[in-house]
TrEMBL record:
<keyword id="KW-0408">Iron</keyword>
<dbReference type="GO" id="GO:0009055">
    <property type="term" value="F:electron transfer activity"/>
</dbReference>
<dbReference type="InterPro" id="IPR000813">
    <property type="entry name" value="7Fe_ferredoxin"/>
</dbReference>
<protein>
    <recommendedName>
        <fullName>Ferredoxin</fullName>
    </recommendedName>
</protein>
<dbReference type="GO" id="GO:0051539">
    <property type="term" value="F:4 iron, 4 sulfur cluster binding"/>
</dbReference>
<dbReference type="InterPro" id="IPR050294">
    <property type="entry name" value="RnfB_subfamily"/>
</dbReference>
<dbReference type="GO" id="GO:0046872">
    <property type="term" value="F:metal ion binding"/>
</dbReference>
<comment type="function">
    <text>Ferredoxins are iron-sulfur proteins that transfer electrons in a wide variety of metabolic reactions.</text>
</comment>
<keyword id="KW-0004">4Fe-4S</keyword>
<keyword id="KW-0411">Iron-sulfur</keyword>
<dbReference type="InterPro" id="IPR017896">
    <property type="entry name" value="4Fe4S_Fe-S-bd"/>
</dbReference>
<dbReference type="InterPro" id="IPR017900">
    <property type="entry name" value="4Fe4S_Fe_S_CS"/>
</dbReference>
<keyword id="KW-0249">Electron transport</keyword>
<feature type="domain" description="4Fe-4S ferredoxin-type">
    <location>
        <begin position="1"/>
        <end position="30"/>
    </location>
</feature>
<keyword id="KW-0479">Metal-binding</keyword>
<feature type="domain" description="4Fe-4S ferredoxin-type">
    <location>
        <begin position="31"/>
        <end position="60"/>
    </location>
</feature>
<keyword id="KW-0813">Transport</keyword>
Length: 78
């Protein structure tokens, strides 16, 4: 999973990331946007446009947010 959307998105849900994604791998889940790891091309376009800094590369997800990696995998049945 290249990029992960974490907890700040739950309160915000601005959707700027959806607009810039060249492969349409971001969709609104039940309470936040999620990135489909099977489609994401690891381009990083979404990360700088997030107004709440909720998007991280998988390797850089803060320890307190690692559960969001599993949340995305479960959402996409991976």
């Amino acid at each position: 999973m290249p990029f992960v959307i974490t907890s700040p998105c739950i309160a915000e849900k601005a959707g700027d990331c959806v607009e810039v994604c060249p492969v349409d791998c971001i969709e609104l889940g039940s309470d936040q946007y999620l990135i489909d790891p099977s489609i994401c091309i690891d381009c990083g376009a979404c990360e700088p446009v997030c107004p709440v800094e909720a998007i991280y590369h998988e390797d850089d997800v803060p320890e307190e947010e690692v559960s969001f990696i599993e949340k995305a995998k479960e959402h996409y049945n991976l």
